[in-house]
Specification:
- By secondary structure, the protein is mainly α.
- The protein has a domain at 19-96: Herpes Virus-1 (2-Layer Sandwich), CATH 3.30.40.
- Helices cover 35% and strands 8% of the residues.
- The protein has 5 helices and 3 strands; from the N terminus they run H-H-E-H-E-E-H-H.
- Strand 2 (64-67) and strand 3 (74-76) form a beta hairpin.
- The radius of gyration is 17 Å and the shape is elongated.
- Bound molecules: zinc ion (2 copies).
- One zinc ion (ZN) is lined by residues 68, 71, 73, 91, 93-94, 96.
C-alpha cells in the first residue's frame, strides 16, 4: 500500500455494500441537505487554488463545492454527489463520516421520518427484469 492508494478516489464495485434499498435515496437526500453546496469563490481561503480529491481538477471560482461538516474537506458538488449516490456515508478523502457524531441521532430520526413505513417488500422485483 503506497501513499497513492490513500488519495485514489476509485469507486470499486466490490466495495459497494448492498444497503437496505429503501433507505438509500432518503439517506443520500438528507446528506445533501446537510452539506449545502456553495460557490468556491465564497469559501475560498488565501491558500491559493486547491483541487478536488475526487476528480483532481483545481476548483474554479464558479464551481459548486460541498464541504464536509466533520472534517472540512471540500469536493465538487457533482463529484461528492456521485459518491453519495453510491450509498457512501464517509468522506472520500479521509473516510470520516459525513454526519458528525453529535448530529447522528438527528440524522437517524430524520431518515426514519423520511422513509416512513418501511416499504420493504414492494422494493423486491425479480432481477430478471433487468436482463
Ligand atoms: Zn471534483
Ligand atoms: Zn475528509
Amino acid at each position: 500500500m503506497g501513499l497513492s492508494s490513500l488519495v485514489e478516489p476509485a469507486i470499486e464495485p466490490e466495495q459497494l455494500e448492498p444497503g437496505p434499498a429503501q433507505s438509500v435515496s432518503s439517506a443520500a437526500a438528507l446528506i445533501r441537505e446537510m452539506l449545502p453546496a456553495v460557490k468556491y469563490a465564497e469559501i475560498v481561503s488565501s491558500n491559493g487554488p486547491e483541487s478536488c480529491a475526487v476528480c483532481l481538477y483545481e476548483y474554479e471560482e464558479e464551481d459548486e463545492i460541498r464541504r464536509m461538516r466533520n472534517c472540512r474537506h471540500m469536493f465538487h458538488r457533482c463529484c461528492v454527489d456521485r459518491w453519495i449516490d453510491h450509498d457512501r456515508k464517509t468522506c472520500p478523502l479521509c473516510r470520516k463520516p459525513f454526519v458528525p457524531d453529535e448530529l447522528q441521532e438527528d440524522f437517524n430520526e430524520k431518515l426514519w421520518a423520511a422513509s416512513g413505513i418501511p416499504d420493504f417488500y414492494s422494493e423486491y422485483s425479480p432481477i430478471t427484469n433487468f436482463l
